[in-house]
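ENTRY TYPE: protein
CONTENTS: sequence, structure tokens:
***
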Amino acid sequence: MNILVTGSSGFIASSVVKNLLNCGNNVHGIDDHNDYYDPELKKYRANLNIALGLAFHKESILNKEFLRKLFRDSKFDSVLHLAAMAGVRYSQQRPELYIDTNVTGTLNILELCKEFGVKKYALASTSSLYAGEPLPYVETLAVNNPWSPYAASKKSAEVLSYSYQHLYQIDVSILRFFTVFGPAGRPDMSIYRFIDGALNGEEVEVYGDGSQARDFTFIEDIAEGVCRSVKLSGYNIINLGGGKNPKTILDLISTIELKTGKKMMVKFKPFIDSDMKVTWADITKAKTLMNWYPKESFESGIEKTIDWHENNSEFIAKLKNIKR
């Protein structure tokens, strides 16, 4: 297949690109390498996939004329729209960035899918939409109470995608990711910060008492789920998460301490109201529709992530510490 992946240098998207290339697909990637975190990490991911055959374009999804030329010249069979401004907390500081990228950018992609007859489309969404809903989270929940501009922007992107499926018969897969982790992850996420702190003997911050819990899911499992979703027809919302009992932040810390053999220095700070206490995915739909379920255990995934940090310590030390 001839596939476009937006946000192709992002954590999840870069793993999706690798999966697609290894399966023999022709893949174009677009990413603007913005400075939400150090762009050198995005360049690192991009270069690994360029070596595998990725046709990479350093550009923004807000540049509709560039996108139009790319769609016209490349004749895509499907689009995996994974570009987004991420991060709940930062969305409260810069909400306009989230509307621009996550809503207007999504509209641009959908308009071009319509214009050039692309009939397969997947959207990266988020478990943040489930805030306040009963556990475990199932896709039929109403999710009408976003707690942050980030969640509101992703809800808007979902609704736009539904409209285009209804009006133009584009097959749409909405993929709600839970807490994704693994090698070369986002530096603002807790696992990255905690491993870095453990290995370097630096203090790490925990917002709340550590009892908050997440449905951690390993990156390679997520990438496989994204790739399978493009074969579905109609409009589908699908949870991609661990599907088992979530792990607390204290569980995460103790696992990192066990795997690194180092005691962490933890500073507890007040809980942030826009954060969620617990996330937990019901993945019955993913199993039924795509025969997908996560294979990597939490413990082995943490071990692989630590190994990457240890093997790339010099590169990581050079990354700019951009705190969100």
